[in-house]
Fold:
Amino acid sequence: MKYSQGHLGRVFVAKIEHGDDLLKELSELAVRENLTAAVLFMIGALKKASLVVGPQQDVVPPSPVWNSFDNAHEMIGIGTIFRNDNLEPVIHLHASVGRGDDCRTGCIREDASAYLVVEVIILEVVGSNATRTLDAITGMNMLGFKP
Structure:
């Protein structure tokens, strides 16, 4: 295990409005506010999204299983923001979404647009030196720490 210590910085409360692109809005907020590391908590609804719901097989590197919906689903999510080697914010967001008996959980990666509202609480983490670095084995941006 690798880890570092940081402390809480600023706290943001954001309202992602009907039709807004969730990942785009969060990324733009991270750039505008110069967030390098943060924890995200959210609740609301999405009218469409594409998410990864697991690997096709338990091998490395993984081949993702994609799942999408294009009708309103309630959602609850938790995620992180860390900058990559190019200093761009990378959002890692897992959520559970449901409509009636249709429930799914996964990593939201594309096409996530808000239905009515998504409320987001963002807790800035200061001084952790956490970053996202491209991992040669998995081909994914993985959590790491700068010296």
